[in-house]
Design goal:
about 375 residues, 3-stranded parallel beta sheet, globular, mainly alpha
């Protein structure tokens, strides 16, 4: 995994609270203020995330988050208070002469997780996105507002060509690790539903939503995902990965194909920790002792195992809130948009965003994973 890929994974989950708050919360307010000054404004389209619902089980409706409402009903959620807490923490850290840039960053990441967990959200990113939605709902006035909530965005289904992906996306970290032989075990329920949606379908939903709501006073929310319309099981992704890399193995830096096996899936955090300790951590500690005693004679083996363990732990930490998800994202509003498009054959072909058209095994084996290999592995 390159430093850039690692940075994406860690920043997505554990952003600095001050940075995430400035972008996702105050940034939404700043865009709204700018839009309010536009004389001929027709619509404000805000792209959020379906995971503003946190780990709430059951059917998640396309309804707004009200200002100050915590997911766990904890009292005291106030955006001005959060802003003040951030400012006071930064002031405290800046006055500490022993503080380094790294220690300040870690402290602000920890603060974000603490504040998110206090009110029922699993991480800083989704917490600050939820706060951004609250600000827009409270301050929009008569401005037409559409909030789009995509789920896990994957590579393109058709346009600009199948499998296109720029940079790394969360779900591709699994393909990268597995194809390169770094992922032999993972955590999750094989029968659980992973809600994914190709990037071009998200873009098409945005375009259609803008056309449908321009100049119409509204606050409408659209879930753009697949868990209700075309559920994707976790085990389907595993099987597709095994099928693809068995036929098209990754060639490592030594010019040898990486032979993959089926991933061992642990269905609880306790079982994962036990297996991981026996399979990886104990051998790693043993290699560390032997390596030190023999003047780094086993340095290559130690480094390789340490890289693998670090990768698995990072990816598990990233996915942990979603590995046992019992959430399903209602898309009744989005279905109404799709019905508008279906009434015109030309538009239906151009602005497709119906997940029911996707055959997931075909998509992952022949579009998504080959796209990840071509555009991400390099």
């Amino acid at each position: 995994m390159s430093p850039y890929q690692h940075a994406y994974l860690t920043s997505w989950l554990s952003c600095r609270y001050d940075v995430a708050f400035a972008l996702n919360t105050l940034g939404a307010k700043n865009v709204l203020n700018f839009a309010a000054k536009c004389i001929n404004i027709k619509l404000l389209l805000h792209v959020s995330t379906a995971y503003v619902a946190g780990e709430t089980p059951g059917l998640i409706l396309e309804t707004p988050h009200q200002m100050g409402e915590a997911l766990n009903s904890a009292p005291g959620l106030n955006i001005n208070t959060e802003k003040k807490i951030i400012e006071e923490k930064l002031k405290e850290l800046s006055s500490d002469e022993t503080a380094t840039d790294k220690s300040i960053t870690l402290a602000m990441k920890d603060l974000g997780i603490q504040r998110a967990n206090k009110f029922g959200w699993p991480n800083t990113y989704v917490f600050t996105k939820a706060l951004g939605e609250m600000i827009l709902g409270q301050l929009k006035g008569n401005m037409p507002l559409v909030i789009l909530r995509p789920t896990i965005i994957t590579s393109t289904y058709k346009e600009p060509f199948p499998g296109w992906i720029e940079g790394i996306r969360t779900i591709d970290s699994l393909a990268i690790g597995y194809g390169k032989g770094r992922l032999a075990c993972f955590l999750g329920d094989p029968e659980s539903i992973i809600d994914a949606i190709p990037a071009d379908m998200v873009v098409n939903a945005m375009i259609v939503a803008m056309a449908a709501h321009a100049n119409q006073p509204c606050e409408t929310i659209y879930h753009v995902g697949s868990s209700v319309s075309n559920p994707l099981k976790y085990k389907s992704i595993q099987e597709s990965g095994y099928n693809y890399f068995s036929r098209h193995p990754w060639i490592n830096k030594d010019g040898k194909p990486v032979i993959v096996g089926k991933i061992k899936v642990l269905n609880s955090m306790d079982s994962f920790q036990r297996y991981f300790s026996l399979r990886y951590m104990l051998p790693l500690q043993g290699l560390q002792v032997v390596n030190s005693a023999l003047c780094h004679a086993f340095n290559g083996a130690y480094t390789d195992l340490k890289r693998k363990t670090s990768f698995v732990l990072r990816v598990v930490e990233l996915y942990k809130p979603y590995l046992f998800s019992k959430s399903f994202y209602d898309d009744m509003n989005t279905e109404k948009l799709r019905q508008l498009v279906r009434s015109n054959d030309v538009e239906a072909n151009m602005f497709y965003f119906d997940p029911k058209t996707i055959k997931w095994d075909v998509y992952f084996e022949h579009i998504h994973i080959p796209g990840a290999v071509k555009h991400v592995f390099k």
